Amino acid sequence: MPKRVLGNDPFERGAAQRPEAPAAKPAAPPPKPAPVPKAPLPAKRAAAKPSPRAPKPALPEEVARAPSPLEALPAPVPPPAEPRAPGGWGGANVELASALSVLRATAEALRAGLGSSPSVELDVYGGDEKLQAALGPLADFLYTRWFRVSVEGAEHVPRGGALLVANHAGALPIDGPVLNEVLRRSRPDLPGPRWLVEDQVFYAPLLGTLLNRLGAVRASPENAARLLAEGRPVSVFPEGIQGIGKPFRERYRLKRFGRGGFVKLALRTGVPILPVAIVGGEESLPLLAKLPASFLGMPYLPLTPLGPIPLPARWYVRIGPPIPLPEPAVGVPDGTAALAVVESLVERTRRHIEEMLQELLRARGSAIFFGD
Amino acid sequence: MRVALTGPTGDFGTLLLPRLREDARVSRIVTLGTRGTSGPRVVHHRVDLTRYDVESELVDLLCEAEVDVLYHLAFLHGRTRSGAFAHEVEVIGTLHVLAAAARAGVKKLVVPSYTLVYGARPDNPVLLGEDAPLHGSAASRFVSDRVEVEKQVAAFRQAHPEVEVTVFRFAPVLGPTADNPATRFFRRPLAPTLLGFDPLWQAVHEDDACAALLHVLDRPAAGVFNVVSADVLPLSAMLALAGTRPLPLPAPLARAILRGLNAAGITATPPTLLDYLHYACVADGARCRDELGFEPRHSAREALRALRA
Question: Residue ranges of the alpha helices (H) in chain B?
């Protein structure tokens, strides 16, 4: 078995394997805009990016004004350069305008979660297209500038419905909306993708309501079958609450894959299962602790560095080719023999995701927050 | 066609009776209730469903009138003086009516119900089909009585396959004249909601509820049918359309407050009813549309606006 690569990151003390750059290790300041740790990086990365390009992810101003994730990181480095330097004054105005639209969209999202933006056009699943359009600037900002999502294998998603099975990561389940956005952007030819969320998230106050308006559907076989019958790609996270409830030191280690509901669903409906590996969620929202929150009707309240604001880790999404299903593809499994079929398919999917995760983590190396 | 109604002065009765009077298909209307009705072709008989010997009386009246269709509408949707009385009228009354209908050889029976009988539960699917179990809402008299009525009707359908029984499960019926727990909730100036929750709701305009009941008058329509608006609205939008200000409270606090108010005798609302503000209870209207060819003409939006008309 290949050695686990957990990535080299500012949260891990000592355990990181980074042979190339041993200088910045124990209690190291995070790889901040300061270009110091960049020099000893492998040649491919150094070549790909001319180092004097000022602050790499040019942060729009509102992020600097709001409690900025960068500021809150340990050992803050003074802001290296004027963020508006590259664009000049015209660029600054554009930046300001887009920053304002991001802020407005954030407020809109909050209102939707609280149920105080009475929108009257929902689909039967509770999705609100108008809200999604209003949140466009925020989604755009998070997707292209904050998480800088890179996608591989989107061409594997077939028409006519598919079950995308992904690892679940991060203290808050934002991998669902990110994967959904991946599908929406890279496969606009498919009907609106949706993702399923576990009950504990779906009925978390505010969060559940907001996710529902953004397109999340409560995980249940009936709901999934209905979505698949409409020919939509449906993303599932079979680890469920276990996946987002694991401490940061166990990041990217897959938990038990439920009871194989996704396999039974695929066998019953005849849609293909596509394994998906998502890297970036754990560093964006590392789970530091679980606070008791039964007074809110929740199992726990996750403690993250900046609350609901994710850290700007880079995200990598890899969609694998379909897992081959047994020959009579459509059929309701029953009996013990069928149970074994389900088990083996669950295991095959799990292993495939595991392998893709390890590959992504190895390829990422130390470029968690920065780098190309 | 001869039509009989129980509860002609009730919620559905007052809606349906004027339309039946104008309906050309109807030759005679027999109303059975405690309060009188009048009009051409209308014959009223004073019948008290809470009396122990009402069944034989009903049999006589139904036989004598040679009724083709019986609408059982004797349900109390308005404020009731006592839950025990309401239970007597609705549940025991239905027992009597069903037994009498079987003995009198009524060919067709129509009973209204509500999608509330499915119960607002965390594990509800996005759209509840007619075959979904009726979980109701345990402590609520209003909902539990309706579930019990439905169970009686279901047992009756099994025992008497020769009688054509139609059950309509309506989404909350809203309109200018309707008076039921849902309209009372949406007519309040200030309505409690649960902070951070915004479940999906449906509604049906009172005219559409009435049209559904009339639709099956001369059509074969055995079975259970959800009658719901095509659109689904979040509770927040329902309140905004109704002109009601929401008062969001954290869910555990809202339940505690309600329990306190109930204990003090100020309210008599079981905390389990808050489930309808917490979880969705949205039904699938496909069967009614496909098998009966009936679709509500008004959207939920229009039904809510009609509330204030």
Answer: 11-22, 54-65, 83-87, 93-104, 141-159, 181-187, 206-215, 235-242, 251-263, 275-278, 286-287, 300-307
pLDDT in tens, B75-110: 988 777 678 899 999 999 999 999 999 999 999 999
Q: Provide the shortest C-alpha distance from residue B287 to chain A (in Å).
A: 16
Dihedral (CA of A321, A322, A323, A324) sign: negative
| B243 shares contact with chain A (CB less than 8 Å) | no
- A323-347 pLDDT, tens digit each: 988 766 555 556 666 788 888 899 9
Q: If 0-12 CB within 10 Å is exposed, 13-18 middle and 19+ buried, where does residue A221 land?
A: middle
C-alpha span between A322 and A330 (Å, rounded): 15
Closest CA relative to residue A277, chosen from A141, A156, A98:
A156
Q: Which chain A residues are within 8 Å of B280, Cβ to Cβ?
A: 126
Give the number of other CB atoms < 10 A from CB of residue A200. Answer: 17
Closest C-alpha among A121, A181, A129 to residue A154: A181
- Distance of alpha carbon B226 from alpha carbon A241, whole angstroms: 34
B41 and B108 Cβ atoms separated by less than 8 Å: no
Tokens 């979505």 -> residue: A227
Largest CA distance in chain B: 58
Chain B residue nearest residue A114, CA to CA:
B196
Residue in A113, A222, A223 nearest the CB of B196:
A113
N-to-C CA span, chain A: 28
Give B293 to chain A, closest Cα distance, Å.
Answer: 21
CB contact under 8 A, A120 and B241: yes
Q: Are A318 and A241 in contact (CB under 8 A)?
A: no
Triad B24, B27, B33: Cα angle to 5°: 115
The conformation of residue A288, written as its DSSP 8-state character, comes to: -
Q: How far apart are CA B79 and CA A73, in angstroms?
A: 60
Q: Which residues of B touch A204 (CB under 8 A)?
A: 196
Which residues from chain A sit within 8 angstroms of residue B279, using beta carbons? 203
- Do B130 and B169 meet the contact criterion of CB atoms below 8 Å apart? yes
Show Cβ contacts of residue A97 under 8 Å, excluding neighbours closer than 6 positions: none
Taking CA–CA distances from B195, the nearest residue in chain A reads A114
Give chain A positions within 8 Å (CB) of B251.
205, 296-297
Give residue B199's pLDDT band: very low, low, confident or very high (50, 70, 90): very high
- Eight-state DSSP code of residue B232: B
Q: What residues of chain B lie within 8 A of the CB of A119, using their CB?
A: 234, 237
Rounded Cα gap, residues B246 and B110, in angstroms: 37
Taking CB atoms and an 8 Å limit, are B232 and A126 in contact across chains? yes
Sign of CA dihedral B258, B260, B262, B264: negative
Rounded distance between C-alpha atoms, residue B37 and residue B22, angstroms: 15
